[in-house]
Amino acid sequence: MQREQENFRQITDSIKEVFFLIDSDTDKIFYVSPAYEKVWGRSCESLYLEPQSWLLAIHPDDCSRAMGTLETQFRTGEEFQEEYRIIRPDQSICWVRVQAFPVRDNNDKVYRFVGIAEDITQRKKTEKSLHKSEEHFKLIFEQAPIGIAVTNLKGEFEQVNPAFCEILEYKSSEILSSRIFDVFHANDTSESELLFVEKLFENNESEFQIELQCETKNNRQIDVILKAVIVFDEFDDPVNCQYQLLDITDRKSMERQLIHDALHDPLTQLPNRTLFTDRLKAAIACSKKSRDYQYAVLFLDVDRFKIINDSLGHLLGDKLLIEIAQRLQEEIGGKNTIARFGGDEFTVLLDNISDFSVAIQVANKIQHRLRDYFDIDGNRIFVSASIGITLCDYQNDKPEDILRDADATMYKAKEKGRACYEVFDKSLRLAASNRLKLETELRSGIFEKQFCLFYQPIVNLSASKIEGFEALLRWNHPTKGLIGPHLLIPVAEETGLILSLGEMIFELAFKQLAKWQWQGKDLTGFKLSINLSGKQLMAPDLIPIINRLLSRINVDPRMIKLEITESVLLEEDYDAISVLKHLRNCGFGISLDDFGTGYSSLSYLQRLPIDTLKIDRSFIQKIQRDEDNKNLAIVQSIITLSHAIGLSVIAEGVETKEQLVKLQSLGCESIQGYLFSPPVDEVAASDFLGKRIIDL
Q: Cα–Cα distance between 649 and 670 in angstroms, integer?
């Protein structure tokens, strides 16, 4: 018996719940386990001394209910349980759950109660939090901006919130009487449903999310994100499926617009360079797979577009480009890709053509379609295009190389006179490669100052005296020797390097003048002519550069004459004329070079700030073989009228004594050419200045 009592005590002492024995008649406590001290915060001894103390600890708000239960159950002898709060001595609150069972004697009379009391404070807190969470969830569920729905495992709706109904344009009652795929009109319902089943059940996934287009009840196409989650119970068995539905139609529309904008030209809405290159890559890939697949690329440039832009304005120029794009679409659209490559350049990809003659036919169609005038805001505008054609090259798999070849071929067409097409051959690729190499070497040459000036004398005929030099650029190439301006100037003009090169020429020329002055050379009435390109003339920092060099090198601008070509002033560019007037007011002489190669009239020359006119060598070379004297008459008219408006005249390219005699007879003041001297280096030029009087 004693051993059984020991075993009982060991068991009850080790459990965390409070175990107790109470006499049913006297309420005497026979036994209470040590856990009482932790739960009630009082010693077991205090309870033995005052059996009612555990009742006195009951929270006042719960006391009447708890005591009523105890009195009733003790009287009836039935088991009972109750939950109530107790107040510990430290005033902390503890929730307890008390459960008691009657113990009966042989006569079935209850003589004591056996009970267990456990601390359920944490459970109560959890229940309270859960209740709040449930209320919060209900509020979120009803007011959530995203659609939320709950279905059973068969897809039958059990709950649905207003946003879900609004997105799919159904009433709540319509949805709750349906399955999810009855109302969720995906573009391919069977495929979507199968995807759900596979992902959620067959693949044992608890959730997944997809983006797709679906159809509302009113047949409106919308973009949505649909997320599905399977809810499991405590035994890991699926209970239901919860769905979240987010309408992303506006976002997807914006994304599609952004993608469209990124791949299309904003002005013409044609594909841009990026999209064209992607489609060209695809065409190249197809040609690699099959030799029967052929394609061609046309590179088109609108001839003289800059003149239209500059004369009529950029707004009208933009409208013209839009009209050109529309005509191209109408004429050769369809499966062909037409892109605006940039500026006034368009490209065409002829995809999967039968043979290369198709490319020629398309080029002719374009030329014919552009031949009709454009009516832009009441202005009749005629345009033409230069077209370069490159054909399918099975050895070339880089779009940039194919476009480079087409571009080079287009420039070849321009050189032939514009308004025509040219088909690529490999010699053009070699020429383009050499040109690129020359550009790279030119940049290095400018950086390393590999340039010098040569000087060609200008001789005054009446005084038989050198009146000046024309400074001519030479490139002292490290491997090719001296290179003249005919090779390097076009590249410098095209790449913009002419500005750096021009500043170098000014500096070299100014320093040479200063050196000759320091050497005591006779520079009376001497003029050093320096060529000025159109790009230099329009550069905003031209005058500041010249002023800076003049102040640093200290030369007199009256000893310098600036030469411009006739084409620079052909369009009556008032900004250019304004710059020239400023330079002339500073003391510089202004000479118009290569006169006769453009379309200037002598009456127009009266309005230009020039001092000298240089007759182009093409006229001078012909007067020697001029049987009907036509060229001689032209040269005589130029000289006579130039003198009439106060301009001096220099004849370029004089190579024979006969040419000299004829020019003297016509009253030409000065000549320049190989008859007297080719361009010479600094040493030979210095020798000329030692004795400026010459024997003609």
A: 6
Q: Are 405 and 282 in a shared domain? A: yes
How many domains does the chain contain in total? 4
Banded pLDDT at 191 (limits 50, 70, 90): very low
- What CATH number does residue 162 fall under? 3.30.450.20
346, 391: one domain: yes
In whole angstroms, what is the distance from residue 389 CA to residue 425 CA? 10
Tokens representing residue 195 in the block? 């995807």
Establish if 288 belongs to a structural domain.
yes
**Chain centre to alpha carbon of residue 167:** 34
Q: Closest Cα to residue 587, out of 620, 611, 615, 605?
A: 611
- pLDDT tens column, 17-55: 888 888 877 778 888 888 888 888 888 888 888 888 878
CATH code of residue 297: 3.30.70.270
Q: Rounded to the nearest 10 degrees, what angle do helices 498-518 and 426-447 cross at? A: 40
Q: Is the pLDDT of residue 311 over 80?
A: yes
Select from 207, 224, 253 the last residue of a domain.
Answer: 253
| β-pair partners for 465 | 460, 693
**What gap in Å lies between CA 189 and CA 211, rounded to an integer?**
14
Closest CA to 502 of 458, 532, 459, 482: 532
* Helix 542-553 × helix 498-518 angle, to 10°: 20
DSSP conformational letter for 316: H
Do the Cβ atoms of 283 and 388 come closer than 8 Å? no
Query: Can you read off the two tokens belonging to residue 221?
Result: 């196409």
Q: How far is Cα 360 from Cα 388, in angstroms, rounded to an integer?
A: 10
Q: Residue 134 falls within a domain, yes or no?
A: no
Write the CB contacts of 574 (distance below 8 Å, at least 6 apart in sequence). Answer: none
Domain that holds residue 117: 2-125
Longest dimension (CA), the chain: 163
Whether 225 and 297 share a structural domain: no
The answer to whether position 439 is within a domain reads no
Tens digit of pLDDT for each residue in 53-66?
878 888 999 888 88
